[in-house]
Amino acid sequence: MRTVIVSVIGLSSILFVIMIQTTINTESVYREEIADALSTAMSQTMSEVMEKNSYGIHNRNEMIAAFLQAMMQKIQADIDLTVRIHQMDYETGKMDIEAIGEYRLPNQRIRRVSIRRQVVMSGN
Question: Who wins on pLDDT, 124 or 49?
Answer without folding.
Answer: 49
